[in-house]
Amino acid sequence: FYISSDDKFVPSELETLKAIKEEKDREFLESRVVEPIGKINKLNDKGFCEIEVESSASQNLIIKDDKDASGKKMVEMPKPNGYDRDKPAYCNPPHVTLSVEIPKEATYYVWVRTYAENSGTDTSWICWDNGDYKRVDHSLYGEFAWIQAITQKLTAGVHTLNFVARENGMMFDK
C-alpha cells in the first residue's frame, strides 16, 4: 500500500512499469511491416481500380454469399480473441491487405462498400502501408453503403491498403 495526500503521487514501480511498456509498444510499432501480398492491383486509364475484397490474399476471412453484393459475395473480417478494438496497429498482420500500384505521387481517395447489421457491427479500421489507422464508421444498417474511408497523399510505387475489424460482423463488398 501507498497512502498519500498528494494527488500527483504515483508509486515509482508503476512509473517504471509504464516506461517499460511504452518502450515495448514503441519497438513493436516501429518493427511493424506489412508486405504486399497477392495480386498487385493497378489503376486503369481512368485513374481508378475496383477491387473485390474476397479477391485479396488475406487469411481467415469469412466469405459469404449475398445476392445484393457485387459479384454476389462479401467478406466478414472476424475479430480475433484478446484483441483491443481500439489499437488496430497491434493486430499484425491486418485482417485484409490489398496491394495497389500507385502510378504517380498524388492524393488518393479510398471508397469502400460496406454492410453492417446493427450498431454492434458497424466499425473497422483502415490505413495505407504502416501509417496511422483511421476508424471507418458505417452509417446505415441492414443495407450496403459506400463510405469514403481514407484520403492520403501517396508516392508512386506499390502500397498496401490494410483493414482491421473493430467489431465482429462488419462486412466488406468492395
Task: Please provide a brief summary of the model.
A 5-stranded mixed β-sheet has the order 1-4-9-6-7, with no helix packed on it.
Descriptive notes:
The chain is mostly beta strands and 174 residues long.
Oligomer: single chain
Q: What is the alpha-carbon Rg in Å?
A: 19 Å
Specify the overall morphology: globular
Mean pLDDT across all amino acids: 81
* Distance, first to last CA: 55 Å
Category from helices, strands and their pairing: mainly beta
Order of helices and strands: HEEEEEEEEEE
Helix-residue proportion: 10-25%
Number of helices: 1
Q: How many β-strand stretches?
A: 10
> Runs with pLDDT <50, length 5+?
none
DSSP strand (E) fraction?
25-35%
Largest sheet: 5 strands, mixed
**How are the strands of the largest sheet arranged?**
1-4-9-6-7
